[in-house]
Design goal:
The structure is a single chain. By secondary structure, the protein is α/β, with parallel strands linked by helices. It folds into two domains: 41-226 and 395-486, Zn peptidases (Aminopeptidase); 241-392, 2-Layer Sandwich (Alpha-Beta Plaits). It is 36% helix and 22% strand. The protein has helices at 2-23, 41-53, 67-80, 82-87, 154-169, 195-205, 265-278, 287-298, 302-309, 315-324, 326-332, 368-378, 403-415, 453-456, 471-486; strands spanning 89-93, 97-102, 112-117, 144-146, 178-183, 212-225, 229-240, 243-250, 255-256, 335-342, 349-350, 355-361, 384-392, 420-427, 443-450, 465-467. The strands form four sheets. Strands 1, 2, 3, 5, 6, 7, 14 and 15 form an eight-stranded mixed sheet that branches. Strands 10-12-8-13 form a four-stranded antiparallel sheet, covered by helices on one side. Helix 2 packs across helix 5, helix 5 packs across helix 15 (471-486) and helix 13 (403-415) packs across helix 15. The radius of gyration is 26 Å and the shape is globular. The N and C termini lie far apart (64 Å). The chain binds zinc ion (ZN).
């Protein structure tokens, strides 16, 4: 008898899975007619190549920065984009950040902002010779533009400028104001002071509240798993994880090592590390993961739909699997990473104040105060001191039904009629967009460059380069995005 019940339950599950798979359809997206425009991708490639030649490297300390490189870059932009120079007001904010304002027709509408950062990371010492072409040569080999900043993110900055310049050449004027905000020290992770922070402060003082912000993020990726799914994926970063370094100091007796007890203060330190690593933060299945899977399932093959689309009952299992992979764990919980430790100042001195420094990446929902509470709870010693550095809370999620998010869906699906899965994701690192939470509720991070996944690993690394073929499409994307988001309706 029991096997009959089991069979019936199994049959019901299979029927329910098939029904769900059959009803999963891509969301209806209103496409736009892409305006005719002739973008010369070789010209864009040359401009990007020129931009890479300016060594706009940001440093944690201002003293090491070659400011004249930024000044020369600014002059270059004025010369290369004369209509932007003529039709916008440009301010240099906080030494080298740029704030352009392109006035719209209707001052009552909330302005929109296009972000990029001008700075790049340095080439790691000793790896200069590993580059096929010099990192600041901007070499063009017919297929790629090579150099530091080709992907992160002079490509983005130059393509936004090309888009605006070409719209101006056609006599287009936006309904709402358009700000172009180009920070100069995004890469330094300095949380006390940044160009982007000063831009936001400037706008806030002027009473500006933005309709939306578009900044760097994931690119347009080709997803191809045979028989399961074949689509382009535009993952749009709608939130950012937090960041905080905590120095945790323990107390011990100290003394001379010639008469050391069985365990020194380092034993306590090791126990503290063990407590932290053993007691990880609770994981959470945030709604963006469901939205991401739903969007992918709707574009999968029938088999893929059965496979991906029936995830809801398996969320606990999926969470378990995600936690086994470091990148996956990062999407569903606050990450604990013990990265530094300190004992005593000399080999013959017992440590009195041994300490560890731990880098935490809080998940949206966990505040820095929650992190400290967790640390105090799980470490077995109660007599500890905790100092915070570089604290930055995780951001809330921007909605996916805003005019800006819908514009990305609409423009990408108009550029690729075969369909693009546009879905939210959580940004693990940091961007300048983080600062804009004070004056904007729709903060999106997406780079419309169709780039093979393998090239992503060259970001911040050796042989950073971008396919020339991805540039013209990005310019068209930015044009259409600006047209759509700046429109009054
Ligand atoms: Zn960047």
């Amino acid at each position: 008898m029991w096997w009959k019940i089991l069979l019936a339950v199994l049959a019901l599950i299979i029927i329910a899975s098939l029904i769900r798979a059959a009803t999963l359809k891509p969301k209806k997206i209103q496409t736009v007619k892409i305006r005719d425009v002739d973008i010369d991708e070789n010209k864009v490639a040359e401009h990007l190549s020129d931009a890479i030649k300016f060594k706009t490297i940001s440093r944690v300390r201002d003293e090491g920065v070659e400011w004249e490189e930024f000044e020369k870059f600014h002059e270059y932009l004025d010369k290369t984009y004369p209509l932007i120079a003529k039709n916008t007001t440009k301010e240099v904010v906080d030494k080298a950040s740029l704030l352009y304002l392109w006035k719209g027709k209707n001052p009552d509408l909330e302005p929109m902002a296009m972000l990029a950062h001008q700075d790049v990371v340095p080439v790691s010492e000793g790896t200069e010779k590993d580059w096929k072409y010099d990192a600041f040569s901007g070499h063009i080999d017919g297929e790629f533009v090579w150099g530091r900043g080709a992907l992160d993110m002079k490509n983005h900055l130059i393509c936004v400028m090309e888009a605006v310049e070409s719209l101006m050449a056609e006599g287009f004027q936006p309904d709402r104001d358009v700000y172009l905000c180009f920070g100069h020290n995004e890469e330094t992770v300095s949380t006390v002071y940044t160009g982007a922070g000063t831009i936001v402060k400037t706008l806030k003082e002027r009473g500006v509240h933005l309709d939306s912000v578009l900044d760097e993020g994931s690119a347009l990726i080709d997803l191809n798993i045979k028989g399961v799914i074949k689509t382009k994926l535009a993952a749009v970063g709608t939130a950012e994880k937090g960041y905080v370094d905590m120095k945790i100091t323990l107390h011990d007796k100290g003394g001379h090592t010639s008469a050391a007890p069985k365990h020194s203060g380092m034993w306590k330190l090791a126990n503290a590390v063990r407590d932290l690593e053993k007691n990880q933060f609770r994981s959470h299945w945030l709604p963006f993961l469901s939205e991401l899977l739903d969007t992918l399932a709707s574009r999968a093959t029938f088999f893929g739909k059965i496979f991906i689309g029936n995830y809801p009952p398996f969320i606990p299992l999926l969470k378990f699997i995600l936690k086994l992979i470091p990148q996956g764990a990062s999407m569903c919980r606050t990450i604990t990473s013990v990265s530094m430790c300190e004992g005593s100042p000399a080999a013959n001195v017992l440590p009195q104040r041994p300490s560890i420094t731990v880098n935490f990446r809080p998940l949206p929902g966990d505040s820095i105060a929650d992190v400290e509470k967790h640390v105090r709870k799980v470490i077995r010693y109660k007599d500890i001191d905790i100092e915070h550095f570089n604290g930055k809370e995780a951001t809330p999620f921007s909605p996916t039904d805003s005019r800006a998010f819908k514009a990305i869906e609409s423009v990408e699906n108009s550029l690729h009629p075969e369909g693009v899965a546009v879905a939210p994701y959580l940004v693990m690192g940091g961007t300048d967009a983080y600062r804009y939470g004070e004056i904007c509720d729709n903060i999106l991070r997406f780079a419309p460059f169709n780039v093979p996944l393998s090239l992503f690993f060259t970001t911040h690394a050796t042989n950073e380069r971008i396919p020339i073929a991805s540039l013209a499409e990005a310019v068209v994307f930015f044009r259409e995005y600006i047209i759509k988001v700046s429109d009054k309706d």
